[in-house]
Amino acid sequence: MKKQSVFSGLLALLLSLSLIAFKVLDKKEKPVAASTQHDVAEYYWYYVASDGYVYSYSLAFASRRTRSYAKEYGACGNGESVECMRGFVYPLTSFPDNSYGDEVIYKAYP
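The structure assignment produced for this chain is given below.
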């Protein structure tokens, strides 16, 4: 009888440890899907002038913002499919600038 209680105690301990291990493995950070990755990253957004340059006065927001925030709150009105804003990982230090940027938001179609 004593052997059976020791065996059942060890079995219960083994079962609880295996359940804990599965919980720990399940809580690992999951990779971000490629389609949502740009909505997680934050950029410095600048409005693009009609000549294709970004000027020192064209910073869209006071701090870094996600692409979805910039699309929703940026002043990109209706127009043709031209660039409205460019996002940069680091703030620009020399102006005027015509580099491509890390992200781009185009004007909405009418």
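Interim note for the steering committee: Residues 34-106 form one domain. The first strand starts at residue 42 and ends at 47.
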